[in-house]
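Support request, please re-run this one:
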Amino acid sequence: MTIDFNSLIHSVYYVQIQMKNVTRLCHTKSVITVNGQYPGPPIVAREGDRVVVNVTNHVTNNVTIHWHGVRQLRSAWADGPAYITQCPIRTGQREWWNADTETVISQALQNGGGPNVSDAYTINGLPGLLYNCSVKDTFRLKVTPGKTYLLRIINAALNDELFFGIANHTVTVVEADAVYVKPFQTDVILITPGQTTNVLFTAKSQTAPNTTFIMSARPYVTGTGTFDNSTTVGILEYGSNLTASNSSISFPALPALNDTSFAANFSLKIRSLGSKKFPAAVPQKVDRQFLFTVGLGLNPCPNGQTCQGPNGTKFAAVNNISFVLPTAALLQAHFFGHSKGVYNSTFPDNPPFLFNFSGTPPNNTRTLNNTRVKVVPFNSSIQLVLQGTSFVGPESHPLHLHGYNFFIVGQGVGNYNATTDPSNFNLVDPPERNTVGVPKGGWVALRFRADNP
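Re-run finished. Output below.
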């Protein structure tokens, strides 16, 4: 096979990260924008095109840019979270292409709480007509009767899984995290922070006069913490200028906030294009196996600080280790041989203390504060089981693996059983993703090849 490189497009974009005043809900706030736009401008490319994005940071904080759904092969230093794989772009500096990293991290380290509860959810930056002082800030999508449309849906919320649906319209899911899936129809999708889902829908060939169809999104909540219990809406417009004041308005029937049954069933519907004759490229055998517990822990609040965790404590841990922000980028420290004092390579393969992960938590819920990494051989096949815990309160945890896609070969409720559960793994057509939600009180098993250092 030959490739005609002359047919490929070499596109160059210039991106300015800058602050801009944005008014929503009758309040004006200064937010980080891309080229003064919120949301930012699209970058359009075909598969195989070369795209160069030059980024200049004009805000006072360091920033990083990360590409969800685009694997940065052998270039982790230009992709991923700040201080982990890449150095953030400093103020006034420029680089080749998530925003304000340090403010959110600093707040979390000081008080132990999660991110602030949002004022509203938005669709393309617009809260919608259900919020006070927001009728004019409602996203509208004009459609032609009988025409089929592709919606690229992205959950850009920081910490909330979302249900999304369009009133009286069935959508066909065709892609998840930039990977084609076996098409299936549904009235509602569930999407985790950082995930993308492409769906097709066909505009109705006939509609009653003055009918407005609402598209809406609201949270899927499994934890006990405070959250934004509100709904953002947009309007599906047929032809002429329909408004929300028309006589007939149809809202989608979204699942209950805590509908774990819908969440589990929806996840099981997502399958890759593999078949028994042509199975997916999931590793059939693995070289290394890990079990990571994901949940919360309780540590005493440092003197002189006010912490937002229960009883004045702070929390968050994987395998009972709470992450400590390094003093230098981990990848940089490794490359120059300066890892001593920055991180150590003793992250455990399994939980250091065994207990009933999804049951009654042990009396000691403290965590170890440290900066640890797990080192694996290049090109080894990895099986990683993420086990949710009941510390403080069980909840669903979204997790993204920077620089990789993985196959979700299994998931379940309760504690993972290394003896019996692997026999039920899907090694034929498991979904291939880069972001997953660890189910409340349950586990999810991932397989991938460590080929992108």
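Residues 190 and 263 are 7 Å apart (CA to CA). The longest helix spans residues 101-111.
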